Amino acid sequence: MSRKEDIIYATLELAAERGMKGVSMSQIAEKVGIKAPSLYNHFKSKDEIIREMYRFLREQAQAGGNQPTIDYAKLFEEKSVEEILIGSVASYMGMVSDKYMMQFFKVLYSERSTNPVAAEIMVEETERMLQSSRNMFYAMVVHGKVKNKDIDTAAMTYALTMHSLIDYRLDMITAGKTDSFGEDGNPVPKNILDFIRWFSDQIGGKDE
Hints:
By secondary structure, the protein is mostly helical. The chain contains ten helices and no strands. Helix content is 71%, strand content 0%.
């Protein structure tokens, strides 16, 4: 593990205990076992550590999911709208349910209303989801899976609803009402599956 990775994990552990605002650069340095001036050789500020933490943990979570290479042309030809959307959200939830990613998001969610950096990262994550949904919906139009009508609005509605339902699930985990994102042996909880099935019926099919 590199020194930068040591710093990221140490900061995450401290932030999970005290919140981002309760963590100082000197505390991070002490946790890593280095002098504070040495810490500044790697990161100029705590905000820079947090931004790099988001990038690093997201990449690690995606790599740790061991997702197989997907033949998207084949996927859109052979799968139904419902199957495509369920597969997409299952992949995303696998990423956010990674141990360290979930810990990081818990800290972000608790501080995004008062911490500009936390809010900035949450905006970036939402925009990633919006763009990914638009790309997926346009691909489904090309393959005749969905109606070519108000497709941008449909993609936005889908993405923001997914965002809210995943937020809700994370709140349930934090509140101790459940201990996982999945439900009844399925990686996707029932309320999300129900929405996807309903939504697929609304947008499925070619234009009349």
